[in-house]
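queue> pop job 88
queue> type: inverse folding (structure -> sequence)
queue> payload:
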């Protein structure tokens, strides 16, 4: 007789049915399945743009599961308490999940594996949304790589990326009742919460959700932008990048799927540059794997002595896009309005905070974590440490980006600036990067918070004192 006990599938930042190893293994076993997600206590405290994105993505996943005849069950609270109850009430025989690689997630999973196995269940974990498991890429001495270029060469030489898994067929959902388990949350409550979210009101027009939308976005990028990616990616007004980061972070598309589609359809400089950016994402996760407290501690200890200025009015002006530097302000305002900022601007705004304003990179990291829809603990902290110079692979601190030259180079006619800094809409191109030099000052736009030379010299002095 066939085993009718359910298999539990715990979704975690892998909100897709295609190329989802845990889902495929569960469906292929032919047992009925129960799909669930837990809004874990740690996630629930502050509502960030990324939380809102995840909530909308869960609703999209629920719609997909409904089309298959089932649903996503939602819980809120502590996974270590909730899962044993689900196991008991559903009489499940197995629990499957795709791995997570951050310290807290990993720790919770290890504890759970032990306790659920002790209840007599089989627990299986599968690789999640990386091309390589983060502990697998090592140098000849068996050490993790410290330099991206060497890391990426090794990955390209040895990598054997598995084929993409199709969406499994013949779904059977268990009818066992789990609504009375601790922390059960009706999905309608989540729908209501996203409706009421202040992020939704602001961000909804800028974003679409779900696995199918992620694939449409990839297709459109490959058809329209991939060939020019290397040349155009740094020009924010051109929209020449894939805009896949939030889909990737929530696992609505996998890096493997992207890799295969891009290598099948593209070639040349654009393709290799794009794949290298995916490589940076991989590298960031391998750095986080080795340094679980990456968003808290300088990887170069000499930075512990930096005389950071107290977070103050200047930090607030940076957050609000009121620094008086149009390119910086455009990026910061776009972030607040859309939950997204192009990479070039992330670098320039981060550099400005850490160097010109001499504010600790951790303040910036926190603000991005709160406001980016694609917030990713590995990519965010690695990049902040890269910009600050405190990371293992970093831009040297003394290389200070000039916000005016960056603006002139990457937004030459000020199109991006005019889109986001409305006070400057009528400023001529001659003064769009330096409006304070115009004869007539634009109304309601601040003067520079600090002169570029003064900020640069102060940053260099601070760096010299501590190195
Ligand atoms: P594309 O240019 O199309 O790149 C494709 C994919 O490659 C991206 O979706 C992303 O997954 C990956 N990628 C690209 N650049 C990088 C990079 N420098 N480091 C790691 N992965 C990269 N990216 C995040 O996904 N989440 C973050 O929280 C995040 N914080 C950042 C903070 C700072 C200070 C900086 C400088 C960069 C940060 N990035 C972060 C990296 C990068 O800016 C974004 O991944 C990129 O802008 C997303 O746009 P896209 O999908 O169009 O990228």
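queue> result:
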């Amino acid at each position: 007789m066939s085993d009718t006990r359910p298999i539990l599938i715990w979704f975690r930042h892998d909100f897709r049915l295609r190329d989802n190893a845990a889902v495929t293994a569960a469906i292929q076993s032919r047992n009925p399945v129960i799909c669930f997600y837990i809004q874990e206590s740690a996630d629930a405290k502050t509502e960030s743009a990324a939380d809102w994105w995840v909530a909308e993505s869960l609703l999209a996943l629920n719609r997909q599961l409904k089309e298959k005849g089932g649903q996503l069950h939602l819980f809120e609270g502590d996974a270590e308490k909730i899962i044993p109850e689900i196991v008991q009430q559903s009489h499940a025989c197995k629990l499957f999940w795709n791995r997570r690689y951050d310290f807290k997630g990993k720790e919770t999973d290890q504890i759970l594996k032990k306790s659920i196995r002790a209840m007599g269940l089989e627990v299986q974990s599968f690789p999640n949304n990386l091309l390589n498991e983060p502990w697998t890429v090592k140098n000849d001495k068996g050490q993790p790589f410290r330099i991206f270029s060497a890391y990426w060469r090794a990955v390209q030489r040895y990598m054997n990326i598995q084929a993409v898994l199709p969406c499994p067929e013949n779904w059977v959902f268990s009818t066992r009742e789990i609504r009375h388990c601790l922390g059960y949350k009706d999905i309608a409550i989540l729908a209501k919460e996203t409706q009421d979210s202040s992020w939704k009101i602001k961000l909804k027009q800028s974003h679409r959700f779900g696995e199918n939308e992620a694939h449409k976005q990839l297709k459109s990028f490959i058809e329209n932008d991939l060939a020019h990616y290397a040349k155009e990616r740094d020009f924010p007004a051109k929209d020449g990048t894939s805009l896949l980061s939030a889909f990737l972070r929530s696992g609505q598309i996998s890096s493997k799927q992207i890799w295969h589609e891009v290598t099948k359809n593209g070639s040349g400089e654009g393709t290799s540059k794009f794949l290298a950016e995916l490589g940076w994402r991989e590298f960031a996760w391998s750095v986080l794997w080795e340094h679980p407290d990456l968003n808290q501690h300088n990887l170069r200890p000499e930075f512990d002595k930096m005389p950071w200025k107290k977070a103050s009015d200047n930090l607030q002006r940076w957050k609000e896009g009121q620094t008086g530097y149009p390119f910086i302000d455009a990026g910061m305002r776009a972030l607040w309005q859309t939950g997204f900022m192009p990479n070039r601007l992330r670098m320039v705004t981060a550099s400005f905070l850490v160097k010109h304003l001499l504010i600790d990179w951790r303040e910036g990291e926190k603000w991005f974590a709160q406001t980016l829809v694609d917030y990713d603990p590995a990519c965010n902290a690695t990049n902040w440490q890269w910009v600050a110079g405190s990371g293992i692979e970093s831009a040297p601190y003394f290389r200070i980006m000039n916000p005016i030259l960056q603006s002139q180079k990457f937004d030459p006619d000020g199109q991006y600036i005019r889109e986001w800094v409305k006070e400057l809409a009528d400023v001529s191109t001659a003064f769009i990067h330096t409006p304070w030099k115009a004869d007539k000052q634009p109304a309601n736009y601040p003067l520079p918070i600090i002169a570029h030379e003064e900020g640069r010299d102060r940053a260099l002095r601070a760096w010299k004192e501590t190195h």
